[in-house]
Design a protein that fits this description.
Structural class: mainly alpha
Number of helices: 3
Shape: elongated
Strand content: under 5%
Largest sheet: none
Distance between the termini: 62 Å
Number of strands: 0
Radius of gyration: 16 Å
Helix content: over 70%
Order of helices and strands: HHH
Length: 99
């Protein structure tokens, strides 16, 4: 008999992965709306790219039911880091790559 994780932890993993997937696509939508409304294009596109990748990765995970704690924890950590430093990142990226 295999040693399996308790069902509760699997439910947390599934829920957290779905939240990350939805949030990633929501973040990309918000960045797209910001660009249309006149926000700086380059930094917002650069910040949206990792969320596009995370959204696709987690959507694949949910669709094919291949959940992984490693992927989910890494994506959650990236979301937290980007959201925490977003203001500084936008100005840094605009100075570095903007007009």
């Amino acid at each position: 008999m295999e040693n399996q994780e308790p069902v509760v932890f699997n439910k947390y993993l599934v829920s957290l992965t779905k939240i990350v997937s939805v949030y990633s696509f929501f973040f990309v939508l918000l960045k797209s709306i910001a660009i249309v409304r006149g926000a700086w294009m380059i930094p917002n596109i650069i910040l949206a790219i990792p969320f596009i990748i995370m959204g696709i990765l987690t959507a694949y995970t949910v669709i094919y039911k291949k959940y992984s704690w490693i992927i989910t924890i890494i994506t959650v950590a990236l979301i937290i880091a980007v959201r925490y430093y977003e203001y500084d990142l936008v100005y840094f990226l605009q100075d570095k790559y903007g007009n």
